[in-house]
Write a structure and sequence with these properties.
3 domains, 13 strands, alpha+beta, 4-stranded mixed beta sheet
Amino acid sequence: MIEHFIDPRGTLLRRDVIAAGFDDSLITRAGRDKLILRIHHGGYCRFHVWEEADRAERHRLKSHVVQRLYGDDVARSHISALLELGGPDWGIDCSKVHLTNLNGIGERTQSSIVHHRGLTLVDDLTRKDGSWITAPARTVLDTAALAGRDPAVAVLDWAQSSGQASREQLEHGIERMARWHDVAGLRYKLRLSNGLAESPLETRGHLLCRDRGIPMFEPQYEVFHPNGRLAARLDGAWPQFRRWIEFDGFTKYLKLRRPGETIEQCILREKRREELVRRLTSWQPIRVIWSEMERPVETGDTIRDFLFRADAA
């Protein structure tokens, strides 16, 4: 019976069960049988859906439940809207659902919900799955305003590289936000973004080079066959040093993996790609993984030594 009250995303509201004439015993039994579990006051989720969800998906499920509880008086915003749009969650606090109130009430934290009241214009909002959500440019700027430098730049890079928002839209959005925000920090974060990094790891690599005084690589560098056909697109390259850089993370291989392809097959295909680039350019690669970014001084020194080795010329 409980199945009739669960929506396509796997969530359920207690008020719908009560409105249909049932009492809490139906929910209690479903919880005891591990069919559902409570994820917010008055909101539940399929047990297996929640158990299999990662941090970002759990936030999306919770924000979906909260949106259903509040209805059209609010729009999901900030990190809650960002994750719904598919944006990166690295370095960002996902513990609270963010709502922008459309009736002028806001600027408070209640339970695990942050209510915002910033001025919302018509093009700051859009509909997604039947509910209000802040538009991509507004979402990205709201998130970047709250986040630290590096996570904020990663979000701004993602917005531009994914086509969610252009640099011009972001610049225009910042000027509009100046009505209710001190936006100097936001302008600085946007200046640091290159709009080409396709992952937080690439963004961190760009910022690492900037911070450590390392010559900046050319992002998304294209290598061609002699006949002019594109052979590969590299995360970054230093043509003057005959070097290139790749940023490796598990999520990268998930993104690159083709339908029906295993992770191992994807990695082997990437190795063949690397061999092709070597043959076409005679350049040397360096690979940087996520954990190395936690040691910026050491990693910066490694990259600098790699660039200025005697065989770099």
